[in-house]
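Pasting as-is:
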Amino acid sequence: MTGARPVTRRAALRQAAIAAALVAAVLVVGSNFVLVEVRLFGLEVQLRLGWALLLALIVGFAGGATWSRR
């Protein structure tokens, strides 16, 4: 592999943090496998609790990222 750059310490730590976050997400979904009813704005959906938690996390992160850029 000619031209390949070495992995810096910062990049390695970032990749390790992302991997740890993904493992944590899989563990949360796996351990919260109970069906719950989610009602929002008249919409009623049955989801697994772990997926509902991850959905709330993603929506909150996206909203915070969007709000902070204004």
